[in-house]
Amino acid sequence: MRRSSLIGFAPLLLVLATGAAQAHAFLDHAEPRVGNKVGNPPREVTLWFTQKLEPAFSSVQRVDAGKARVSGNQMSVSLKGGGAGTYHVNWRVLSVDTHTTNGSFTFDVGP
Known about the structure:
Layout: H1 2-21, E1 27-31, E2 37-38, E3 44-49, E4 59-61, E5 69-71, E6 74-78, E7 85-94, E8 100-109
Parallel strand pairs: 2-8
Antiparallel strand pairs: 1-3, 3-6, 4-7, 5-6, 7-8
């Protein structure tokens, strides 16, 4: 009898576990791509996340970057003119469900 009771709860547990796994905004992809090498310095860096972001509490930084722009689950920052080398991108976001996440990545510029 206990076995049948546990089987009855399995779908509920699956739904709860799936909801918990999606409770944070994680980096989905970026342009330039994470770890990629591009020939010329980009004018901006754009990041896409798995959830909508709270603009007032989300940021992306590079040493010479401007202020981040947030729209839905996308965040962009313009870059000042730069040369060849490794660009480090640090981000911190607050999703609309009030969970914060942060991370960083690099991309290279040059021939």
